[in-house]
Fold:
Amino acid sequence: MSEKSLSYSDAGVDIKKGDGFVNNIKPLAKETFHQYVQNSIGGFASVASIPSEYKEPMIVTGTDGVGTKLLLAKQMNDYRYLGQDLVAMCVNDLLTLGARPFLFLDYYACESINPDQATELIKSIASACKLSGCALVGGETAEMPGLYAKNDFDLSGFCVGLVEKSKIIDGQNIEEGDVILALPSSGVHSNGFSLVRKVIEHAQLDLNETYPGFDVTLGQSLLEGTRIYVPTIVSLLEQNVQIKGMAHITGGGIAGNLSRVLPKNCDAIIQKDAWQVPRLFSFLQEKGNIHEDEMFKTFNMGLGYVLVCSAEEKDKIVHSCPDALLVGSIQEGHQEVNVV
Structure:
């Protein structure tokens, strides 16, 4: 009796399906291309030229993922915003140095490709890249049965940005008397979802229920896409507004992230009464019986992006960004952030 000849598909990897998926998403990626992209999707690597207006271009890079928010999306069978989350987590980080997003690559790993799900993810990534002025130049789709359980997947992204060397924003010019402005978040964004999921389990919350004080279901509130701050900040930089430091408020909250851009001789004082914390955060706090300090260490609490500037520049920023809020000030200190 002859033994069966094994194939890759017998091992759970369908190359033909994978190739078909790549062909389907090529037009989505091509829509994000700018004039500096030199080749098309499908090669071993991507090539781009650097815009000639840069005299001393500095390359800024970053990588991130969506985290356990993926599990809630799976529960809700709603993947519309995950690509936006992925791109936002990367481009917002680059932006803090004054860099403009330039190239983006994604990594989609799964047990087996679900073409509809995967295409929805890439559509969201491409849309977010276009908003960020960033070309989706490639990525990797990996089927790994045995490593991932059935229907499981993970998502990560890699971004390249550019900034003129003389225009890098690193916080070193921050000084006593400067002010702190913040831009609102669109929700929880993509951090703290392990705690969110614990609260849901602890309080036996229903993702499909619209609780008092909400206009949509709890699941929809939690899955709202991460705000992309690129258009707002790039507009400010094009107006030559002098921003001294910026922080993307992710894991670690306001204090954990703003402290990363402070000089060693400065403290930041954040006034909690300067903004209204969105209902979603107070709801999670109540249902999970979470101490306020823990909330501020874990979540953005309604502020997704922070800028530090001189008092003289404040009005220019507020004029260009009507949703910008004055939330604090800089004092002499030891690189600490105090939320009072």
